[in-house]
Amino acid sequence: MSSVDNGGSAANGGEPPRNTRHPTGIRVTVALLAAMCVLLGPVGYAKGVAAETNSAAEWFTLGFGASVGLPLLGAAIATVAGDRRAAMYSLVLLAWPVVFVTALHLHTGT
Protein backbone atom coordinates (compact mmCIF):
# COMPACT_ATOMS: atom_id res chain seq x y z
CA MET A 1 0.00 0.00 0.00
CA SER A 2 1.16 3.48 -0.71
CA SER A 3 0.18 6.57 1.13
CA VAL A 4 -0.82 9.60 -0.89
CA ASP A 5 -0.29 13.08 0.48
CA ASN A 6 -3.25 15.21 -0.57
CA GLY A 7 -2.07 18.20 1.40
CA GLY A 8 0.09 21.02 0.20
CA SER A 9 3.82 20.87 -0.25
CA ALA A 10 6.49 23.03 1.27
CA ALA A 11 7.10 24.60 -2.15
CA ASN A 12 3.80 26.47 -2.11
CA GLY A 13 3.65 27.21 1.60
CA GLY A 14 1.41 24.30 2.55
CA GLU A 15 -1.42 25.50 0.33
CA PRO A 16 -3.47 22.89 -1.54
CA PRO A 17 -2.53 22.43 -5.18
CA ARG A 18 -4.03 25.01 -7.52
CA ASN A 19 -5.51 24.54 -10.95
CA THR A 20 -2.62 25.53 -13.19
CA ARG A 21 -3.49 23.49 -16.27
CA HIS A 22 -6.66 25.19 -17.53
CA PRO A 23 -7.54 28.25 -15.42
CA THR A 24 -8.73 30.14 -18.49
CA GLY A 25 -11.14 27.36 -19.42
CA ILE A 26 -12.64 27.37 -15.94
CA ARG A 27 -13.07 31.13 -16.00
CA VAL A 28 -14.64 31.05 -19.47
CA THR A 29 -17.10 28.41 -18.28
CA VAL A 30 -17.97 30.45 -15.19
CA ALA A 31 -18.33 33.58 -17.33
CA LEU A 32 -20.75 31.80 -19.69
CA LEU A 33 -22.83 30.60 -16.75
CA ALA A 34 -22.79 34.13 -15.31
CA ALA A 35 -23.93 35.61 -18.62
CA MET A 36 -26.78 33.11 -18.83
CA CYS A 37 -27.72 33.99 -15.24
CA VAL A 38 -27.74 37.73 -15.93
CA LEU A 39 -29.86 37.31 -19.06
CA LEU A 40 -32.21 34.42 -18.32
CA GLY A 41 -33.09 35.33 -14.73
CA PRO A 42 -34.75 38.67 -15.51
CA VAL A 43 -36.35 37.34 -18.70
CA GLY A 44 -37.97 34.45 -16.84
CA TYR A 45 -39.14 36.68 -14.02
CA ALA A 46 -40.52 39.36 -16.35
CA LYS A 47 -42.40 36.75 -18.38
CA GLY A 48 -43.77 35.33 -15.12
CA VAL A 49 -45.06 38.73 -14.07
CA ALA A 50 -46.69 39.26 -17.46
CA ALA A 51 -48.01 35.69 -17.86
CA GLU A 52 -51.46 34.39 -17.20
CA THR A 53 -52.10 32.41 -14.04
CA ASN A 54 -51.54 29.01 -15.64
CA SER A 55 -48.02 29.61 -16.94
CA ALA A 56 -46.67 32.14 -14.45
CA ALA A 57 -45.31 29.47 -12.11
CA GLU A 58 -43.25 27.90 -14.87
CA TRP A 59 -41.68 31.22 -15.83
CA PHE A 60 -40.93 32.09 -12.19
CA THR A 61 -39.32 28.67 -11.75
CA LEU A 62 -37.17 29.12 -14.85
CA GLY A 63 -36.16 32.62 -13.76
CA PHE A 64 -35.28 31.45 -10.26
CA GLY A 65 -33.40 28.42 -11.55
CA ALA A 66 -31.34 30.57 -13.88
CA SER A 67 -30.64 33.38 -11.44
CA VAL A 68 -29.77 31.19 -8.45
CA GLY A 69 -28.91 27.76 -9.82
CA LEU A 70 -26.42 28.87 -12.47
CA PRO A 71 -24.23 30.90 -10.06
CA LEU A 72 -24.20 27.97 -7.64
CA LEU A 73 -23.22 25.63 -10.48
CA GLY A 74 -20.45 28.03 -11.52
CA ALA A 75 -19.18 28.26 -7.94
CA ALA A 76 -19.17 24.48 -7.63
CA ILE A 77 -17.24 24.05 -10.88
CA ALA A 78 -14.70 26.71 -9.92
CA THR A 79 -14.29 25.27 -6.42
CA VAL A 80 -13.61 21.78 -7.72
CA ALA A 81 -11.12 23.23 -10.20
CA GLY A 82 -9.37 25.13 -7.39
CA ASP A 83 -10.18 28.64 -8.63
CA ARG A 84 -11.32 30.48 -5.53
CA ARG A 85 -11.62 33.86 -7.21
CA ALA A 86 -14.01 32.57 -9.90
CA ALA A 87 -16.03 30.79 -7.21
CA MET A 88 -16.29 34.01 -5.21
CA TYR A 89 -17.44 36.00 -8.25
CA SER A 90 -20.06 33.34 -8.96
CA LEU A 91 -21.40 33.59 -5.43
CA VAL A 92 -21.55 37.39 -5.68
CA LEU A 93 -24.08 36.88 -8.49
CA LEU A 94 -26.54 35.57 -5.91
CA ALA A 95 -27.33 39.23 -5.17
CA TRP A 96 -28.49 39.69 -8.79
CA PRO A 97 -32.09 38.47 -8.22
CA VAL A 98 -32.61 41.13 -5.56
CA VAL A 99 -31.43 43.80 -7.99
CA PHE A 100 -33.53 42.80 -11.00
CA VAL A 101 -36.68 41.96 -9.02
CA THR A 102 -36.53 45.37 -7.34
CA ALA A 103 -35.85 47.11 -10.64
CA LEU A 104 -38.71 45.32 -12.43
CA HIS A 105 -41.18 46.12 -9.66
CA LEU A 106 -40.14 49.75 -9.51
CA HIS A 107 -40.40 50.02 -13.29
CA THR A 108 -43.81 48.35 -13.56
CA GLY A 109 -45.22 49.82 -10.36
CA THR A 110 -46.53 46.52 -9.00
From TrEMBL:
Keyword annotations of the record: Membrane, Transmembrane, Transmembrane helix
Top-level taxonomic group: Bacteria
Entry keyword annotation includes Membrane: yes
TM regions (residue ranges): 28-47, 59-81, 88-107
Region (Disordered) location: 1-23
Protein name as annotated: Uncharacterized protein
The organism of origin for this protein: Lipingzhangella halophila
Lineage: Bacteria, Bacillati, Actinomycetota, Actinomycetes, Streptosporangiales
